[in-house]
Design brief:
The chain is built from six helices and five strands. It has helices spanning 41-59, 75-94, 104-111, 118-129, 138-159, 167-177, and strands at 2-7, 12-21, 24-34, 63-67, 99-102. It has a five-stranded mixed beta sheet with strand order 3-2-1-4-5.
Length: 189
């Protein structure tokens, strides 16, 4: 399965393409889309849309993973970032490619370190993909991290059986009504 990870931005949008074959993960491409600050925001967003179409044509991903915004940025930056994310989400949806969204904390946890800084995330990406990340822009390593998170989550979802909705609650309720405590874990899709 080919997963395209996207790290959105209005000036730089990182992308990373990961191929997942069972437990084997391989980086196929990583870089960033550079949007000129000389352009007005509407023109940058239009250019982002065109560049995304080019990536989707070139890589033909089966799944796209995009990073959710970090809420610690300023309100004006968050609004511009949301507009860039909107362009990316709409572009992927037009192609009917499934999209998964992950917070920075989810991405870090999937890589094995929930409190890692950007440099540590880049090193983890390099280790997991046997890749020299020192030659990549930070946006590209962030996008690879998002793609890795998605690939690993998808793999664990396919390995773990999922209880139908309502079954776990019904078992739990039936057992607790009889005075026993039940511990039932059910994953929700």
């Amino acid at each position: 399965m080919r997963v395209l990870g996207l790290d959105p931005g209005s000036r730089y949008t990182g992308y990373g393409l990961v191929e997942a074959d069972g437990s084997r993960l391989r980086a196929l491409a990583a870089d960033r889309i550079v949007l000129s600050p000389a352009l007005a925001l509407p023109e940058r967003l239009a250019r982002l849309s065109v560049e995304l179409d080019t990536l989707l044509d070139r890589f033909a991903p089966e799944l796209v993973a995009i990073e959710k915004p970090f809420l610690g940025v300023s309100t004006s930056s968050l609004i511009v970032l949301a507009q860039a994310r909107g362009v990316l989400l709409a572009g992927v949806a037009r192609r009917e490619i499934p999209v998964r969204e992950y917070s920075p904390a989810e991405v870090k946890s999937a890589l094995g370190s929930g409190r890692a800084d950007k440099e540590q995330v880049a090193r983890l990406v390099g280790l997991l993909l046997a890749l020299d990340v020192s030659v990549l822009p930070a946006d590209a390593t962030d996008a690879l991290a998002v793609a890795l998170c998605c690939a690993q989550r998808r793999r664990s979802e396919t390995l773990a059986p999922v209880a139908p909705r309502g079954v776990a609650g019904g078992v739990r309720n039936a057992l607790t009504r009889r005075g026993r405590r039940a511990s039932v874990i059910a994953r929700r899709p």
